[in-house]
Amino acid sequence: MSQADQTVTVEHSVSDKADTLRTGTSLRARLFQYRYIYLMLLPGVLFLLVMNYLPMFGALIAFKEIDYALGIIGSPWVGLRNFEFLFATRDAWVAIRNTLSYNAVFIVTGPIVAVALSIMLNELRNKRGAKVYQTLLIMPHFISFVVVSYLVFAFLATSTGYMNTRILPMFGIERVRWYLEPARWPVILFLVNGWKSWGFGTVIYLASMAGFDPQLYEAATIDGASRWAQIWKITIPLLLPMIMLLFILSLGRIFNADFGLFFQVPRAAGPLIPTTQVLDTFVYRALISLGDIGMSSAAAFLQSVVGFVTILSVNLIVRRLKPEWSIF
Amino acid sequence: MATITEPTRSTATTRQRQPGKLRKNEISLTANIVLNVIFLIAVALILIPFFLLVTVSLTDNDTLVQEGYRFIPSLWSTEAYSFLFQSPRLVRDAYMVTIIVTVVGTFGHVLLGALVGYSLTKTKMPGHTFFTVFVFFTMLFNGGLVSTYIINTQFLGFRNAFRGLILPLMFNVWHVLILRTYFATAIPASIEESAKIDGANDLRIFFQIVVPLSKPVLATIGLFAALIYWNDWFQSLLYITEPRMYSLQFVMLQTLRQIEMMQRLLTMGAPGDVIDRLRDLPQESVRFAMVVVSIGPIIFAYPFFQRYFVKGVTIGALKG
Asked: Does the N terminus or the C terminus of chain A have fewer Cβ atoms within 10 A?
């Protein structure tokens, strides 16, 4: 092993420690030395090939007219016809509009609330209290959206829900048929999404803060900086790389939405479709309920490709502006 | 993938903040009280829905239909739970399916992730960069639901089979990242080296040395995986049509859709015998009791695993 190689090994925290003992130099010898590692990689590689990479090529069915009699490979190519059908429907545009609007709101508000909560937790003087709050705040992250939909139903059920039987009468407001009125749902879904996900975001940022150098804060105190100034001048700048990482990753999912949130929580109610239909539920409904492979595969293809292109371009821009914030 | 393949940050140690020596570096007492009030409200908002869930499951079924869901019902009843514990066929099958899927899936998830995570720590291995990109690329691009669904049902036989509930959730890139980071930083190099000198091959080193030394991170990933499997209903929605193969979450999902129909039949009237049959079963409270029982294991294990959870997130956050 050359001197240069060893320097690299020392520099990287993820390094091949046991490698100093592998002495072969020719490629064949090195391949042989790592034979057991390749063996250990094999299950994962095969798994990803079948479960992840095969569907990537399968996504090309968006350009085919699938006829099961001819098989998937034998089915004829139809160019962009599936996409033409897709964009000719109003439903697709509604789904795209909803997906982008909800995501825009979630992507902006999510980090703001989570960073604010994590800084507040970090500043608490009663550290044990902070632990308890943190524990309870992430609890919703661990339950499924089916359970969440029951919790929401307990409040919003028309004749028995807590809103209609107790809260609204207190203010003298008429009953609301929640599951029939689409206009109410953007706010409901925003609140439910926040309830479920803000605590988790908080813990991520809090974990990140645990790694900050305390000397920075000590030096700031000596210089007479207030806690408030320290938050803006130390904590938030140090959090920015993490915020950017999660931001870029979430932009990569700009065309995706949480199926559970938009399908389970509104109980898949038909009347709510105008405000609860997102691309994921659109694809599911087109595929399972209508059996329309052409349209659903076109929409699914769009989701994958737009997400991929978005994340690549955002990352490229970020790398130009601030290389250390880019993710690759 | 610079930051992903070669995390070079050296802030590996988590240091506790020490109090400033010159003056107390803390927020004011008033600010502290205000923050505590905010968090108490936040915590209440999180817990209140759970309380409502529990009281509904403990309410007499007729009372539920008449006076609605209340925090303090006029008539309590444990009927729903005793009905559940007589375990009707559907509920018993659902529990079996969920337990089998959770146990087998968690084991596979951890094993697969650990094997890949460990292999990717071998930075000198020919093809290391290729394999790293091969694994992490799946985070950026996927084939989409339709193509996945067609391949899984047409070629892989996922319909109404356990593999349809287990395989789609068996690999998680974030978990591989956490495992790889742990193996690369927490296992002393000297131990692996001396095993090598003693003639152990990589397989043996992994299973007899690395795995026993990595129990904390394996437990963390195991808990994540168990939760993913326990809470999953989406795979059932895609691949399962036979009631025998319904998971717990899937049964709950389906029954929620029918609740309001039941209520309407009971209050607005239906043929007498239908009403009688409906009244035989404590329908609505049972559904809520099922939800309570489904989150029971999570709540009980919660104090234990939330510590691991925060630890796992910390590993990911610091070095991811």
From this structure: N
List the single residue in B29, B146, B249 with the smallest CB-CB distance to A144. B249
Among residues A281, A277, A276, the alpha carbon closest in space to that of A300 is found at A281
Q: Domain total for chain B?
A: 1
Compute the average pLDDT of residues A146-170.
Answer: 93
3-state DSSP assignment of residue B119 = helix
Q: Is residue B9 part of a domain?
A: no
The answer as to whether B118 is a domain residue is yes
A25 vs B contacts (CB less than 8 Å): none
Please report the domains of chain A, with CATH numbers, ordered by start residue: 1-31 (no CATH), 34-78 (no CATH), 81-325 (1.10.3720.10)
Range of the domain at B163: 88-319
Distance (Å, whole) CA B233 – CA B165: 9
Q: How far is B190 from chain A (nearest CA, A)?
A: 8
List the beta strands (DSSP E) in B134-216.
Answer: none
In a domain, B124, yes or no: yes
B116 closest CB neighbour out of A18, A39, A44:
A44
pLDDT of residue A217 exceeding 80: yes
User: Comparing C-alpha atoms, which of A296, A243, A321, A326 is closest to residue A66?
Assistant: A296
| CB-CB neighbors (< 8 A) of A39 in chain B | 203
pLDDT (average), residues B216-241: 92
Contact between chains at B112 and A17 (C-beta distance less than 8 A): no
Tell me, what's the ipTM?
A: 0.87
- The dihedral formed by the CA atoms of A52, A58, A62 and A68, expressed in degrees to the nearest 10: -130
Q: pLDDT tens digit string along A172-193?
A: 999 999 999 999 999 999 999 9
